[in-house]
Amino acid sequence: MDYHVLRKTDSRWLAAATEIYNADWKAAKYLASKMIGDEFDDWEGIVVAEDTDRIVGFCSFVNKDIVDLVYSPYIAIVYVDPNFRGNGISKELVKIAENQLLKVRFQSIYIVTQHVGLYEKLGYSQIDEAEDKFGRIMRVLEKNF
Predict the structure, then answer these.
(1) Alpha helices for 53-114 (secondary structure H)
(2) Element (H, E) at 127
(3) Which residues is 1 bridged to in the sheet?
(4) pTM
(5) Which sign, positive or negative, has the C-alpha torsion 7, 11, 17, 23?
(6) In the chain, count of helices (H) and strands (E)?
(7) Lower Cβ count inside 10 Å, N or C end of the chain?
(8) Residues 109/94, Cβ–Cβ less than 8 Å
């Protein structure tokens, strides 16, 4: 498995957005549209996991997520192709995104999710709940470094 960090200035950005758009998850289309629409700041980006030149997992690291709260930054839209789940890919994606955010000198990182247990294994704890822009109640998790 190869992992790559991409930012909007990378030559592979739009190709990655197209591939992400074709993933079998609504949030992937949302992420791809933000990538194509140039809605990323310079320090924000995505992490992709590739298997034989095909994206099989991804996540983003961004200033704002789908909730309107004062927390920042977020690791968002963590996805692994169902055929590749159970191999620690999501853990590696999150770890790489965390490292990118630490380089920008953030001391706390947030994740918005409905999942219970997945991110807790990576050191995150629930600190809040909030309604997202789609009307769902989401858990807000935090990890301090």
Answers:
(1) 89-103
(2) strand 125-131
(3) none
(4) 0.95
(5) negative
(6) 3, 7
(7) C
(8) no
In this structure, what token pair is assigned to residue 5?
A: 């960090």
**DSSP labels, 35-49:** HHTT---TT-EEEEE
* Short-list 95, 98, 101, 7, CA closest to 45: 7
Cα–Cα distance for residue pair 84/86, rounded to 1 Å = 7
Contact by Cβ (8 Å): 142, 124: yes
Instruction: Please write the tens of the pLDDT for every residue from 56-88.
Output: 999 999 999 999 999 999 999 999 999 999 999
Beta bridge partners of 76: 60
Distances (CA, A) of 46 to 117, 127, 135, 137, 138: 23, 24, 25, 25, 22
Express each pLDDT in 5-62 by its tens digit.
999 999 999 999 999 999 999 999 999 999 999 999 999 999 999 999 899 999 999 9
Evaluate whether 6 touches 48 at the Cβ level (below 8 Å): yes
